[in-house]
């Protein structure tokens, strides 16, 4: 399995084909190497983990199933719409990053259906 930087680069190259998606926030510091849509961060690598922005209920569901961990950006308080993805969800990282892109970019459509991204999603995800 590729390391996190290689996996993120692969995800980024696929998602950067979408309108408005870019690698890099154009700023230094937080999110400087992140994926953005319309200038807003939706995915990044932090502390060796893929981190994505999703609706709070979806984040809670991923944490509940063990597919994610709370993300606190080093401030000691979890951010309700951000989740660190675990190895358990690694087959779905690209789909979850795509879902995050849609969420941040304004497309509030439902996430992938069970099986479409290699796994089922919690029934209380939204």
Secondary structure blueprint with pairings:
Elements lengths: L3 H12 L5 E3 L11 E3 L2 E7 L2 E5 L2 H9 L3 E3 L11 E4 L7 H13 L21
Antiparallel strand pairs: 1-2, 2-3, 3-4, 4-6, 5-6
Written overview of the protein:
This protein has 126 residues and is an alpha+beta fold. The protein has a single domain (4-105), classed as Aspartate Aminotransferase, domain 1 (Alpha-Beta Complex). Helix content is 27%, strand content 20%. It has three helices and six strands, in the order H-E-E-E-E-H-E-E-H. Strands 1-2-3-4-6-5 form a six-stranded antiparallel sheet. Strand 2 (35-37) and strand 3 (40-46) form a beta hairpin. The N and C termini lie far apart (31 Å).
Task: Give a brief description.
The chain has 126 residues and is of the alpha+beta class. The chain is built from three helices and six strands.
């Amino acid at each position: 399995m590729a390391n996190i930087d290689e996996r993120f680069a692969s995800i980024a190259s696929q998602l950067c084909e979408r309108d408005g998606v870019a690698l890099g926030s154009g700023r230094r510091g937080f999110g400087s190497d992140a994926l953005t849509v319309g200038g807003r961060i939706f995915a990044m690598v932090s502390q060796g983990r893929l981190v994505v922005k999703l609706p709070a209920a979806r984040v809670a569901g991923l944490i509940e199933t063990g597919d994610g961990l709370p993300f606190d950006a080093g401030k000691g308080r979890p951010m309700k719409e951000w989740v660190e993805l675990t190895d358990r969800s690694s087959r779905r990282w690209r789909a979850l990053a795509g879902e995050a892109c849609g969420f941040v970019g304004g497309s509030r459509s439902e996430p992938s259906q069970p099986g479409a991204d290699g796994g089922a999603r919690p029934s209380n995800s939204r």
